[in-house]
Amino acid sequence: xxxxxxxxKFLSSHEWARVESDGTVTIGLSDHAQDxxxxxxxxxLPEVGQxxxxxxxxxxxxxxxxxxxxxxxxxxxxxxxxSALEDQPEIINSSPYEDGWFYKLNPSDMxxxxxxxxxxxxxxxxxx
Amino acid sequence: xNKTALHESHIELGAKMVNFSNWEMPINYTSxxxxxxxxxxxxxxxxxxxxxxxxxxxxxxxxxxxxIFANDIKKISQDNRAIYGALLNEKGGILDDLIIxxxxxxxxxxxxxxxxxxxxxxxxxxxxxxxxEVIERSDMxxxxxxxxxxxxxxxxxxxxxxxxxxxxxxxxxFEGEKLFARTGYTGEDGLELIVPSSDIKNLWDKALELDCTxxxxxxxxxxxxxxxxxxxxxDMTVNNHPYESNLGWTIDMNDENRQFIxxxxxxxxxxxxxxxxxxxxxxxxxxxxxxxxxxxxQGSGIVLSGSYSPTLQYSIGLARVDQGYQENGKVMIRxxxxxxxxxxxxxxxRGKIRP
Lengths: 128, 355
Known about the structure:
The structure holds two protein chains of two kinds. Chain A is an alpha+beta fold. Chain A has helices spanning 31-37, 84-87, 91-94, 119-127, and strands at residues 9-10, 15-19, 25-29, 40-44, 51-52, 57-63, 67-71, 76-81, 103-107.
């Protein structure tokens, strides 16, 4: 298991968001979700410059077993994508909270952070 | 929900359990890809005790199977042989696919889990006129030990008769109530052990001690897909006939006097115009999934089974397509047209990538 960092905020659909020191936001998928999906073999990332609304589909992740949509925890403009995932999607399995990040946003409304779950609340969602 | 005799063992191994036709079964224990590779490179063990087992008593069993089974049971009239084939309805629709084992002058049949009740009713209905008694063996479990090292592992288990080493592919033998058969669903060498549930735990534990890797139903699916083996309910249903399901080779019409159920309907089918199941390889990045639409120069089709192939390391699938396809075509994945090649469904031969 990968420890869940305390500075993350979550959607109940298992995406995490981390506000960086420069005000940008990094988005990824939780350890719980990568474990449920199993071996990840393909990722489709958004494009840099693309505008994404909170809770709309931003990426697709496919494990051997199934395809899943990835929803954006926050609205904003995509400023960077983790292109390493395109050749090595299994990084999401091995390092969901660090090397396995999906994309970075320039957030358009930081108040949306209030709609997200704390690590504790997210953990209790996973136990249900 | 139904549980196999190994339910606790699966939980102890940390398996992810899923509902499979109302049976709580392991989908994977660790990594599906690692489990898959263990079967291709060494030996894996599967608990497939959810499958339905039937025995038959009395009456004219040969005549019974000649009527209900589209392959010809006479091919295994000698003892110690097994045969694969389809159960058809009068319209030629596939009710199920199954294996019939013949040893010690007894027949044992293994068919799918989801069709258990349908099949039992069907056998009983047709067994009456032949005086055959149908016995569902819910007291039996099934282990499959598969892979290039499977036989070596099996021979190290003292509870299993060493004569299993002499069985040819699709050979089988009884030892009391235990049936040992050189069959499987992975494209690898190995055995299926159809044995009383009370014997299952001991055999499972012995196999694990010998470093057989426990393998879940997730890898079972990718293994059978690479071997080009159909999955009932996915690649074929009661709405499909054998010729559009790659099962034409299991339809035996050689004995003109044999009147099996579905035969008349099959005779009226123009096979040269039937759709076909073909193997497909995705040439672009992505993963083929059931339901994706396919086009080729002369027609269209649909993906039936699709996944990532751990052995080939790209996505493969089975598709039912109109005839007239050439070497390649297109598949629609999320509104994007991607390139596919049409190939033989047998992506691997004896577990190896074809030259």
